[in-house]
Amino acid sequence: MTIQENIQKGLQLAFQNIFNHSVETQDLALAPTRKEFEGTYTFVVFPYLKISRTTPENTATLLGEYLQENVKEVAGFNVVKGFLNLVLNQSSWLDLFTKIYQNPSRGQMPSNGKRVMVEYSSPNTNKPLHLGHLRNNFLGYSVAQILEANGYEVIKSNLVNDRGIHICKSMVAYLRFGNGETPESSGLKGDHLAGKYYVLFDKEYKNEIKELVASGQTEEAAKKNAPILLEAQEMLRKWEANDQETVALWKQMNTWVYAGFDETYRKMGVEFDKFYYESDTYLLGKDIVEEGLQKGVFFKKEDNSVWVDLTDEGLDEKLVLRGDGTSVYITQDMGTADLKYEDFQIDKSVYVVGNEQDYHFDVLFKILKKLGRPYGEGLYHLSYGMVDLPTGKMKSREGTVVDADDLMQEMVDTAEKHTKELGKIEGFSAEQAEELYQILGLGALKYFLLKVDPKKRMLFNPQESIEFQGFTGPFVQYSHARIASILRKADQIGVDYQKADFTGIGSIAQSESDLIYLLNEFENKLRLAGDEYSPSIIAHYLFELAKEYNRFYADQQIFAEEKPELVAFRVALSSLTAQTIKKGMGLLGIQVPDRM
Ligand code: ARG
Q1: Are the beta carbons of 425 and 391 closer than 8 angstroms?
Q2: pLDDT tens digits for 388-405?
Q3: Which residue's CA is the nearest one to ligand 1's atom 5?
Q4: pLDDT tier at 501, thresholds 50, 70, 90
């Protein structure tokens, strides 16, 4: 049993013996004691006054006395109004530390026998990835790591939207203006090349609208009749009819785009186990429409279109198949959901997609549940908010989008500048320095995007993100590097901290037990982050841990300490902190340096 569980058990007995009342242990919540008071755990008695029938102070004192007497971990207590602050004894801290220090599988829960798919990234192939995709990719990758650490078998998937009118727009513009340009001839990454023509399409489209309006058409008519748009629509029809030339061009451009994406994914440090392509899946789901009609989940209107009525569930009627038998977005997503299940028999399916699609996923999941899908209860939309830059909202059509490649490079450059200014790379080879800038730049970016609750819209501030102080990735990374240097010194002078048992070293300081408390919290936070699909819980935790370590470090001598067993204990505390930071940052997809 953990310390917390022992105290809860003790409280249960106290209620039984003193007040003759039975309470469930899991209802007896313990909170961390506020820093200004002595103690580790605080029990709030206000909700129990009806049971105790005495004042808050009295209730807390009676419970405190009982715990001190009967729970071996509780050394003392103090009462502040209705708050019972519990002081734990030294040996239980050391027992606890020894236990977690010697646990080789800390941070990896045993398998829970469940399989989960995390779909993320899912880009369109007509343009390069942008800032919003960075949030998506970092979230998806991190949540996959967190679920894996929670004992799931995880399949990371990417549903690539490689077909449709948007790609045809890039293709048409390429045919008109491209002069056979290639990534090689232009020096452009393939995704940037496709994006260039997507932007050109839009420019030309606007010009043509202007001309048509000047020649007397209404704006509305002009938007429909612009020749370049008609060409794109014609191209989509040809693609659907499997026209050879069209398909060849489509393949060519997508191949370029994938090469570009691969490079971007590599820089981001994300990866996938399974790719789905919409060109393969866009016709799926029609059989499910049939099934839904038979089961009475869907109904047909006069024009033959098929709908689902979700008014009972607080939504409205929603189209699932057009009257002419063609699919809509949700038709395909129903089919793809089944396909994912057929492929992997997943228990859970997570979709990392921006919150502009909240309604779509709400409807999709309700339908799949109504249809009784075995994975229905395991569906989860990890919805995230938009990312703004200080200069305003990102736009993609006009070509003023914040490009993911550019932004990552800028972060690495800023990390370089910053590190050089602070003189932190003495004795580094050029290669090592370059690696450090990568780690810091990407770390700053990921941490900044992940520390925020995914649901919240956020402002990305590149300058702030790279600071070495405050709630930033580089601050946590720096803490790791500092500890790594302490460990190097410990190894040099032969401190034996690896497999030591610290239960007998006697008295430890508050800053040490505070640190043990937080180190012990790691797996609780990991569980919580998994339950809530929230990397931000890990990011907050690591910041607290790094700060707590700094307090300990300011408070305690390590190598100047005379007793060798205390030196070993403090080095071991440092070592476990470094391991925890490394493991935790790994869950965010962030590397940590050993020197900086
Ligand atoms: N490609 C889509 C977009 O960019 C996102 C796809 C999300 N995934 C899904 N299964 N619908 O908007």
Answers
A1: no
A2: 887 654 444 444 578 999
A3: 122
A4: confident
Closest ligand 1 atom to residue 160 Cα is 1
CA of 536 to the centre of ligand 1 (A): 23
Q: What pLDDT, in 10s, does the model give residues 238-296?
A: 999 999 999 999 999 999 999 999 999 999 999 999 999 999 999 999 999 999 999 99
Structure tokens at 445: 């970016």
Ligand 1 center–CA 209 separation, angstroms: 29
The two tokens of residue 398 are: 């006009």
Cα(122) to centroid of ligand 1, in Å? 6
Looking at residue 391, what is its pLDDT? 66
**287 and 226 assigned to the same domain:** yes
- Is residue 177 located within the same domain as residue 240? yes
Q: Are residues 381 and 441 in the same domain?
A: no
CB 43 within 8 A of CB 51: no
pTM over 0.85: yes
**Are residues 409 and 295 part of one domain?**
no
Atom of ligand 1 nearest to the CA of 337: 10
Q: Which atom of ligand 1 is nearest to the CA of 329?
A: 11
The CATH number of the domain holding residue 516 is: 1.10.730.10
**Ligand 1: distance of its center to the CA of 328 in Å?**
13
468 lies in which domain range? 404-587
How many angstroms separate the alpha carbon of residue 238 from the centre of ligand 1? Answer: 24
H helix runs in 102-164, sequence order: 131-149
Strands 115-119 and 298-300: unpaired
Q: Which two tokens stand for residue 45?
A: 């008695």
- The alpha carbon of 126 and the centre of ligand 1 are apart by a number of angstroms equal to 14
Looking up tokens 């019972």, which residue turns up? 84
Q: Are residues 65 and 124 in the same domain?
A: no
pLDDT digits over 505-526, tens only?
A: 878 998 999 999 999 999 999 9
Are residues 125 and 264 part of one domain? yes
How many distinct structural domains can be found in the chain?
3
Say which CATH number the domain at 74 has. 3.30.1360.70
Contact 514, 585 (CB under 8 A): no
CB 58 within 8 A of CB 47: no
Q: Which of 46, 72, 88 is the last residue in one of the domains?
A: 88
β strands within 400-548, DSSP E: 458-459
Question: For tokens 């770390």, what's the residue?
Answer: 443
Instruction: Give the binding-site residues of ligand 1, using a 6 Å CB cut-off.
Output: 119, 122, 124, 159, 161, 333, 336, 351, 353
If you measure from the C-alpha of residue 117 to the centroid of ligand 1, how many angstroms do you get, rounded to a whole number? 15
Distance 312 CA to ligand 1 centre (A): 27
Residue 182 domain flag: yes
Q: What is the CATH number of the domain that holds 275?
A: 3.40.50.620
d(CA 91, CA 107): 24
- Pocket mutation for ligand 1, best pick of 357, 381, 384 (most atoms within 8 Å of C-beta): 357
Give the residue, out of 127, 136, 159, with the most ligand 1 atoms within 8 A of its beta carbon, to mutate for a pocket test: 159
